[in-house]
Amino acid sequence: MKMRKKSDLPVKLCPVCNRPFSWRKKWERDWENVIYCSDACRLDAKRQKTIL
């Protein structure tokens, strides 16, 4: 695989904090299913669902 510049990596927006986050090597096989930028945002989303 050819090296990419960081600015050329795919980007998504986190639905919890609305911040952009970039593709990471550890997400290579599962990038389509990555929703949250961090474990903290993933846990906050679960907390919000239980409150509502």
From TrEMBL:
This is DUF2256 domain-containing protein.
